[in-house]
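User:
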Amino acid sequence: MERKVVCQNRKARHDYFIDEIYEAGIALVGPEVKSLREGRASLKDSYARTKNGELFLHNMHITQYPFAHHLNLDPTRTRKLLMQKREIRRLIGKTEEKGYSLIPLSIYLLSGRLKVELALAKGKKKYDKRHILKERELKRELNQLKKTTRH
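Assistant: Predicted structure:
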């Protein structure tokens, strides 16, 4: 089973601590699928919410398919996510905890079907981001020092 990534939310791992990752199907109409297969979508500022025991994806932008004149849909309409009921109930319990959100990380094709990779995430504070950048920079400097001392 080959997994072809259609679009990614690159800022998600920078802005959130990711605790768990889930896979969900997504309910789409024909022209949206064709547009997604061409990679014409964006997950920037998108999020998932539960409502009445169902899961919905908000603010995901799918560019209108140029050859579908008969069906003009709102590019940022709310789309239903498909998961098993017990998984959704578990997510409802987790997202009610303080600070947890459901963030889409990527959309990909898996054996002909479009899937969304959802993350149960907790938002990072500004000082967390600075701390992580500082650690990364220190590791980089250490690696450079190791390389120069070997030669």
